[in-house]
Write a structure and sequence with these properties.
Blueprint (H helix, E strand, L loop, with lengths): L8 H14 L4 E5 L2 E5 L10 E2 L9 H14 L5 E4 L8 H7 L2 E12 L1 H7 L6 E6 L4 H7 L5 H12 L5 E8 L2 E11 L2 E8 L9 H15 L4 E7 L3 H9 L3 E11 L1
């Protein structure tokens, strides 16, 4: 018997809807239950279609064609986020047949705040600030390689995250050494934008960030934590597993070549 967990469609639909408020695009449009996001092409999450609801009788091929028109009109490549909640169920196959390539294979992980809190603890020598607004030090630690235009777009996106929210900034010897964001809604806290610049890795920065974010989530009364991690990011997956996170479901993107 296989021990592979069967993804829960309703759980995926619920968490994917919450995740939009935790990483909100500049513009959103609805198309027969599908949600289209646009944000100057910065990050796939904010520039893709979330196709998780579809009324009976809707024509998927006609909807895909309309999506393609709307993204091309903005100078963007059409892109869909495919999770177990995608509708129709054969949408991934339909997109592949139209020339869409699969990319960004990732996992959504979930955990209980109390369990993570028992495992996580700040690392000595690393200080942690919890900011109400993302500042220059925070964005510099979060996206150290971004150009000015990309940094501006990403910082604006972070500033649109719905409250309650917090921006965690770790420092070593006074220098920004890592950053992450968190937002709480409907009893769930989404941890996102976790990054440690290369010069500060393997010193416990991510562990300290997770400890601080989990403490914040508990104070907000969150009953669950969730985050997204790329399948091939081995170090991050190991960290989250040690903290007690478990896989809820996989997802990937389909982008038109």
């Amino acid at each position: 018997m296989s021990d592979v967990k069967t993804p829960d469609t309703e759980e995926a639909r619920f968490l994917e809807a919450l995740a939009v408020s935790a990483w909100p695009p500049a513009t959103r449009e609805e198309l027969a239950g599908w949600e289209l996001s646009f944000d100057r092409g910065v990050t796939r999450r904010a520039n893709s279609t979330l196709p998780n609801r579809l009324p009976a009788g809707a024509d998927p091929e006609a909807l895909i064609a309309t999506v393609e028109q709307r993204y091309r009109a903005r100078g963007l490549r059409p892109c869909f986020k495919i999770s177990p909640a995608a509708a129709p169920a054969d949408l991934d196959r339909r997109l592949a047949a139209r020339g869409y390539s699969a990319e960004g294979h990732s996992l959504v992980l979930t955990a209980g705040p109390e369990g993570v809190a028992r495992r996580a603890a700040p690392v000595p020598g690393i200080s942690l600030q919890t900011l109400e607004q993302p500042d220059r030090d925070w964005s510099g630690a979060c996206w150290p390689d971004a150009g000015s235009a990309e940094d501006e777009a990403r910082s604006a996106l972070a500033g649109r995250i719905e409250s309650p929210r917090a921006f965690a900034l770790a420092r070593i010897e006074g220098q920004p050494a890592g950053a992450a964001a968190i937002a709480c809604r409907a009893g769930w806290a989404c941890i996102t934008a976790v990054n440690t610049p290369a010069a500060w890795r393997r010193r416990g920065v991510a562990w300290t960030l997770m400890a601080g974010l989990t403490d914040w989530a508990r104070r907000q009364g969150a009953e669950g934590l969730y985050l997204q991690v790329e399948v091939d990011n081995g170090p991050a997956r190991t960290l989250y597993e040690r903290l007690g996170f478990e896989e809820a479901y996989p997802y990937h993107y389909r982008r038109l070549a």
